[in-house]
Design goal:
With 163 residues, this protein is of the alpha+beta class. The protein is built from 4 helices and 8 strands, in the order E-E-H-H-E-E-E-E-E-E-H-H.
């Protein structure tokens, strides 16, 4: 399945990617999945997680070994907008989640901006896979991270080459 690919854009030395998804849950339930440590760990597949839900609070993903990402929350407007810095790999980028509820569904727009060329490949396929895992949590399905990530990587590589 290659639908719902992220939209990539390159400006000068940085990349941006945007994903648009719709989840069959209320905004509060999706917000909880984005801001509760235990729930985040389920779809981001972290070994450990720190999340201080407030402006100025820290975000710290531990994926195992030396793999981690750290950031600081700059926008925390429940249940509509969450934004934080993302320090991983070659630089600091920004992640922003925007939620819009319509009846029993919630639209999610994820923006990840200021991504370096060294990091775009993994971030593009990674967020895509994590968002599918988030959907699977709500639908009761299962998505295995590594096979899906491996299938998406060459697709995003091709998009990156053309952009």
């Amino acid at each position: 399945m290659t639908d719902n690919l992220g939209s990539l854009r390159r400006d000068d030395n940085f990349w941006s990617i945007r994903y648009d998804r719709t989840y069959d849950v209320r905004a509060e339930e999706l917000w909880f999945a984005l801001t509760d440590v235990a729930r985040i760990s389920e779809w981001m597949l972290t070994e450990a997680m720190d999340f201080d839900p407030r402006v100025g609070g820290s975000v710290h993903y531990f994926w195992g070994g030396t793999d981690e990402s750290k950031g600081t929350i700059s926008v925390f407007d429940a249940p509509r907008t969450l934004e934080y810095s993302w320090n991983e790999g070659a630089g600091t980028s920004m992640v922003r989640f925007e939620l819009a509820e319509n009846a029993d569904q919630t639209a999610l727009t994820l923006h990840h901006d200021k991504i370096t060329s060294d990091d775009i490949r993994g971030i593009a396929a990674g967020w895509h896979t994590h968002l599918e895992i988030l959907q699977a949590l709500f639908s009761g399905e299962e998505v295995a991270f590594q096979p899906r990530f491996d299938a998406l990587t060459p697709i995003y590589d091709e998009i990156i080459e053309r952009t």
